[in-house]
Write a structure and sequence with these properties.
about 70 residues; mainly alpha; about 80% helix; rod-shaped
């Protein structure tokens, strides 16, 4: 009888955990498809500024302005 109660509680918890994993994976795949790379966790204003700076430096090296 106790074993049945344990299984009765584990099934909904398993379903909830599975749905959370699926939702997280879908969010990851959508972001990766939209941006071409995985999401950077903990991306603050400093990281955004450095990414913008790096992109500008790389673009300037690849496509120099003709003066």
């Amino acid at each position: 009888m106790v074993r049945f109660q344990f299984l009765e509680a584990v099934l909904p918890l398993g379903i909830i955990a599975g749905m959370l994993c699926i939702a997280g994976n879908v969010q990851y795949q959508i972001h990766k498809a939209a941006h071409g790379r995985p999401k950077h966790i903990g991306n603050d204003m400093w990281d955004v500024a450095m990414e913008r700076r790096d992109k500008k430096i790389v673009d300037d090296k690849l496509y120099p302005a003709s003066n």
